[in-house]
User: Fold these one by one.
Assistant:
Number 1:
Amino acid sequence: MGIGIWQLVIILLIVLLLFGAKRVRNIGSDLGSAVKGFKSAVKDEEKTDDNDDSAKLESSDEGQTIEGEASKVKDQDKT
């Protein structure tokens, strides 16, 4: 009940007729380079996040515990 191989072949032939082989090849290469650029950007972002986290851990002092009591403050009418 899904798309079979013959439906994909027919769709590919229609796309080739509409755009031409050269244009479809250019679109494919542009799409491939865009995906490659996206993947490299994600890897670079993960590396910078890891470096930032490790730098924060190295530069931070030991944690201090702050003791206290939480209380709820009710809104007072301003009259």
Number 2:
Amino acid sequence: MKYDFDKVVPRRGTNSYKWDLVKQDDVIPLWVADMDFAVAPPIQEALRKRMEHPVFGYTLVPDSYYEAVINWFGRRHNWHIEKDWILYTSGVVPAVSCAIKAFTLPGEKVLLQTPAYNCFFSSIRNQGCEVLENELVREGDTYRINFEDFERKCADEKTTVFLLCNPHNPCGRVWTKEELQRMADICRKHHVRVISDEIHCEIIMPGYHFTPFALVDQDNSVTLNSPSKNFNIAGLQIANVICKNDEWRRRIDRVINIYEVCDVNPFGVIALQAAYNECGDWIDEMNQYVWDNYQYLKRFVLDELPQVQVIRMEGTYLAWLDIMCYELSSDEATQQLLHDGRVFVSSGTLYGKKAGEGYLRLNLACPRETLKQGLVRLGRVLGQYASDDHEYGCPM
């Protein structure tokens, strides 16, 4: 590999949300979606060059920014975007809230697929809307969409928006073009607008293919994306809303300004351009490394925790583990792992009280040695609860 993803970059003591939230210095954090890999060299170099100028004031977003976005998605995903369709903002979560606010009235329903990214719930409720769940159906080591339930809930006259996660966090599904098309057809039939969060769109495992929702229905959708998760630059706070519909875009832009998330920092603007213009090979190698970490996780679980089931990870760097074999809730397991094992993972209930119960989410975007140490601790704690008479899980 050209890039060294095995290199351990010390982060504790740097005010890292991932590493410094828990004060004990012997905890291994495998929770929040934040990589432990060094940022790609072209991004580092672009930021270093910008810092040679000693003033960091308000910034204009240049044409080269839009060109970088347009060229990247055209080259990588065969998606034609025009400059006028792009609205920049400080992050995908603020963009989700702005889009919901622009498209709904208080009391209306926003449909999402659970288990779902935890901030979706608060984004919906903060706009005075009701969360409507289309619970994904567990099938072997993966999930499928319950389309009958999906259409029934889209047909509810109070449902005005479907908030899609593509690829899906935390289930790791990379939705196929056929699945996206079926969702698009149902939403259009029932006059439901689609907001597609595609923040993990570059983190795709070997053998899978990402399709932007806009390629199946660009006229009835808004896409939200960012280089933040993909290139490990979340702290630079840069994201884009991509919307073809002029009236929708005007409404979203108005909310972005009302919520005052219309200004971005100069380093985010610089980093996005370097990422999209120069770092395609870094993404490709990073995906392969995460895939290898996932294979290591599966082997470890098979050898040490055979009753645990590892859900198939098609995209993102977030593993989803079924621990229903133990007489522990997700929250109890998370607390035990933190206090007894000194390893910090996410409880599945963060992603839905019902749909996430019995699961843990693990971040695999870290050097292999960090992952190995974390898994040894996880195995030591969960191994105490193993039962010889419990039926083993599905093949991985």
Number 3:
Amino acid sequence: MALSKLDNLYRQVILDHSSHPHHHGTLGKSDLTVEMNNPTCGDVIHLELEVKDGIIENIAFDGSGCSISTASASMMTDVVLGKPVSEIEDLTLLFSDLVQGKDVPEAEHLGEAEVLAGVAKFPARIKCATLAWKALSKAVNDNEYVGESGNIQKHDEE
């Protein structure tokens, strides 16, 4: 089956983000660190954020995962960098609705992550696409120090 030109473009954007992820690596100093995994396929993400005055000033991710998981994390970092923490939950829910195939009129707020709407056709890949977004949501919403279990750790300010 031949892909339409638009499908081909979307596929290329995903492959580019997967092969050359943006904001990949670690930060020298971070305010929030989260590690999460997708046990169904083995994707793992380590997410670090630097937040100042309620704004995400820097973000980086590392880990291992499939192309959808890596591309989604890369796109997510582009979307949220410079955004207020107060907008994160809305963006996360918007993305979740998008990859579940729901009508999302505000999808343009997701930047290139909008191309992941096609994941809805592959339900087994939804968890891959949402892993980074769930980690981000946990980082900005969870006030507990878990540390040892690897779920979330908030660093004390120096």
